[in-house]
Amino acid sequence: MQTQNLCALWVGGELSYIKRLCLTSMLDTGHEVALYTYDGVPNAPAGVDLRDGREIMPERLVIKNKREGSFALGSDFFRYHMLQKRLGCWVDTDMVFVRPLAPADYIFGYETEISIGIGVLKLPADCPIISEILAFAAKRPVIAPWWSASKKFRQYRRWLLGRSRPVDCLEWGIIGPLAVTYFAEKHNLHIKAASIDVFYPNSWVEHMDVFNPAIDITERFTQGTVGVHLWHTAIRPLKIFLPPEGSFIDLQCRRLGVDPASKPMPVSGAPAAPSHAGNGVTQ
User: Fold this and answer.
1) Which site in 94, 190, 220, 273 is 20 to 30 Å from 41, CA atoms measured?
2) Which candidate, 85, 178, 166, places its Cα nearest to that of 133?
């Protein structure tokens, strides 16, 4: 089976075992994987093609969202510029692949009943979704077309007073899922989105289930399931610990030969890993 070339970005030094697991799963399902970085990655899995992020976008544009301190906003910009260069399909580095992804012009899927996710994203270079997202993000003031009239007015008034909020101070997903969903529906391209089970069978509210040995998340898979998004930000408190034996993450690490203990674990005195008894995992 012919597979889709995959492209990802990593900013932040060494890869956690979760990131190595996800990249290894992409290779294991037969994909060529290009990982873009600005400072190098010392522990990328063998077979990953390390590339300079400057081939896609200047480093100064990899900006953080000031509310959360996350590079997600810069990552959003990066994926659109990458897609305009026709280099392949964007993938987040927290997506575990369980089946190969076939090439197509449009690759994306719903993460909820009403929201399109962008953890896996491929669009034609001239797709209006890309051009219109970049256009509205570049305007001053930045005013999202889906905002209410009152919210648009407040932002415009702030701008007149010299106090408008730039894109990095606006809500999470302003040029991510919110924007892709809006413009996909505007151009009737939402009909090309895959169903939830393809890329997001483990939803945001179920994100901790991948560490719970009492829950078999593969029961949520269908014949169309390609990957499992791990919701990197949400699982951050757990990923510094060894995955509980028998959990989805543990089983995937064993299957793909990824050693979660290959990096130092928390020193003595660090908080204990949360309990995973029964179904009582905190969401």
Assistant:
1) 273
2) 178
Q: Which two tokens stand for residue 33?
A: 């994987």
Which string of DSSP letters, residue by residue, matches 107-165? EEEESSSS-EEEEEEE--TT-HHHHHHHHHHHSSS---TTS-HHHHHHHHHHHHTT-PP
Q: How far apart are CA 26 and CA 31, in angstroms?
A: 6
Q: What is the value of pTM for the model shown?
A: 0.86
Domain for residue 148, yes or no?
Answer: no
Give the tokens for residue 35.
Answer: 């990982």
pLDDT, tens digit, 9 for 90 and up, residues 94-120: 999 999 999 999 999 999 999 999 999
In the chain, the number of structural domains is: 1
Structural domain including 233 reads 6-125+192-258
Q: Are 74 and 64 in contact (CB under 8 A)?
A: yes
Kindly give the interhelix angle for 248-256 and 17-28, rounded to the nearest 10 degrees.
60
d(CA 193, CA 185): 10
Judge whether 144 lies within some domain: no
